[in-house]
Amino acid sequence: MDEKEIERLLDKFDRSSLKNFELAQDDFKLKFSKRDDDEHVVVEDPAQPGSTTADSSGHGQNDQAQTASQSDQPVSQNVAEIKAPLVGVVYFAPSPDKPAYKKQGDHVEKGDVVCVIEAMKMINEVKSDVTGTISNILVEDGSMVEYDQPIFQVTKG
């Protein structure tokens, strides 16, 4: 089973009313599970421009214009990217009732946890490999990220 097939299954699962899905083929096993509706994530204060807030499904919503402008910006030599080390769903807080690890404008040290990625019910911490200030958040909370996809831009220093 390739990545496109898994993404297609995940998309269909998201749109369905199923709570759990499990698939086994030979030595390959795939399992999806949805969070309960009462689990919400609030990442930043909605009054701030470009902030991220949770909708009823617990997935973050960013201002689309800001997201589009961020992806069009060239990366300078003074800006480093923190990239996803694996495919999964990114969350900026350790749990729905806790504050975000880091938000735009926060100082980050090398080795600081900046977010987590959930893959197959396993939570994986994503740590910064650079010291600086988070200048841009490039993905939405609760969205699917690909391997090596940039999540944050960090201004070094």
Overview of this protein structure:
This protein is an alpha+beta fold and 157 residues long. It is built from 2 helices and 12 strands. The protein has helices at 3-15, 64-72; strands at residues 20-25, 28-33, 53-54, 60-61, 79-83, 88-91, 107-108, 113-119, 122-127, 132-137, 144-145, 150-156. Strand 1 and strand 2 form a beta hairpin. It is elongated, with a radius of gyration of 16 Å. Mean pLDDT is 77; it is low at 38-73.
Indicate the topology.
Elements: H1 3-15, E1 20-25, E2 28-33, E3 53-54, E4 60-61, H2 64-72, E5 79-83, E6 88-91, E7 107-108, E8 113-119, E9 122-127, E10 132-137, E11 144-145, E12 150-156
Antiparallel strand pairs: 1-2, 3-4, 5-12, 6-8, 6-11, 7-10, 8-9, 10-12
Pick out its properties.
157 residues, alpha+beta, four-stranded antiparallel sheet
- Gap between N and C termini: 43 Å
| Pattern of helices and strands | HEEEEHEEEEEEEE
General shape: elongated
Considering DSSP H and I runs of 4 or more, what fraction of the residues is helical?
A: 10-25%
For the largest beta sheet, what order do the strands appear in spatially? 5-12-10-7
Whole-number average pLDDT? Answer: 77
Annotation, overall tally of beta strands: 12
> How many individual helices?
2
The quaternary state of the protein chains shown equals: single chain
Largest sheet composition: 4 strands, antiparallel
Global Rg: 16 Å
Low-confidence stretches: 38-73
Taken as a percent bin, the fraction of beta residues is 35-45%
Classify the secondary structure makeup into a structural class. Answer: alpha+beta
